[in-house]
Amino acid sequence: MSPSEASASGTAGRRRKNSEPDDAGGAARTGGRRRAGGRRKQEPRRFGRLIAVVGGVLVAALIGLGVVLYLDRGEEGGADGPPPQTRPVAYSVEDVGDNDMNAVLADREADARPLNEGELFGDRSAEISSRGMEFTLRDSELSQDCAAAVWGEEVVAALADADCTQVGRATYVGDDYFGTAVIFNLADVEGSRAVAASMAEPEVPEGEEPPEGAPEPGFVIPPSGADPFDRLGSGYSSAEATVSGHYLVVVWVQPADSESVEDRVSLASPIVTLSNFRDPLYRRLVNLREDEPASEPEPGAVPGTEETVPVPGS
């Protein structure tokens, strides 16, 4: 993997506004005998004080309820603002060439069945573990709006050119790392390679600066901005895109305690672990192989051997 530096991004804060009831208190009464009808004249003022007291209690109760709901949502990892548009410090592309997956799943003509939520986010994907690490599924989404899953004009254009019809996104959390996994359903393997290349930063000769005003290439966006994914990209993180036939799988991880892009650390193991997110593609590979018709032996060939025997009458 070849690292590429990126700038960190922050998240917006939240401010709560309190409202206070108007003071409905009246002036102190003076002594003396009330005139006829005096009691009826005082009732509206007493009624106004009652409304103010009740209104104050309701405001306090609503504010308290809002605080409780806000805290509960944070503890459960609910949505807490849009995900940040940022990118990893290190990004690499894994393309093993004409392997079985790139050959069997080369295009949607050979693999026409759309992705489904059970396939991507079912029980087999609820927990992903290997190498002594475990990731648990937090959020997931399967959509036809591929452009909404990325930022950056170059990536959006590459997805359109590759005829992206589906994008599946998930967030995963573990004890020491958190990350996101994204899969794009594209027309063919060449489109997969093109989208992977569109997310790479342009190479700049050592000692030179990128051209002024040059746009960033963009990257994927996780499906949730809830903690800790509001910090994804603000610490040291690494991502890998794997060309898998007409699918492109992007896995992006960050240490849970990383607070700076300068905190360089090897993330090879968590990336390999979370890359098991693409296991459904291997199951598709096996199914398509099983559906292939068996090839008929050539005339004169003896099944199970490389010998040929004369064909009668030849």
Question: What's the order of the H and E elements?
Answer: HEHHHEEEHEEHEEEHH
Overall pLDDT metric: 77
Strand line-up across the major sheet:
1-8-9-6-5-3-2
Any idea how many domains? Answer: 2
Outline, from the CA principal axes?
Answer: globular
DSSP helix count?
A: 8
State the end-to-end distance.
Answer: 60 Å
Number of strands: 9
Our Rg estimate from Cα atoms comes to 31 Å
Judged by helices, strands and strand pairing, the structural class is: alpha+beta
In terms of DSSP E residues, the strand content is 15-25%
Transmembrane segments: 50-71
Region (Disordered): 1-42, 288-314
Keywords: Membrane, Transmembrane, Transmembrane helix
Biased composition (Polar residues): 1-10
Give a brief rundown of this model.
With 314 residues, the chain is of the alpha+beta class.
What does this molecule look like?
This protein folds into two domains: 43-76; 90-203 and 216-291, no CATH class. The strands form two sheets. Strands 1-8-9-6-5-3-2 form a seven-stranded mixed beta sheet. Strands 4-7 form a two-stranded antiparallel ribbon. It is α+β, with helices and mostly antiparallel strands and 314 residues long. It starts with 37 loop residues before the first helix and ends in a 23-residue tail after the last helix. Helix 5 packs antiparallel against helix 6 (189-198). Mean pLDDT is 77; it is low at 1-44, 61-79 and 301-314. A hairpin with a 3-residue loop joins strand 5 (166-173) and strand 6. The protein contains eight helices and nine strands.
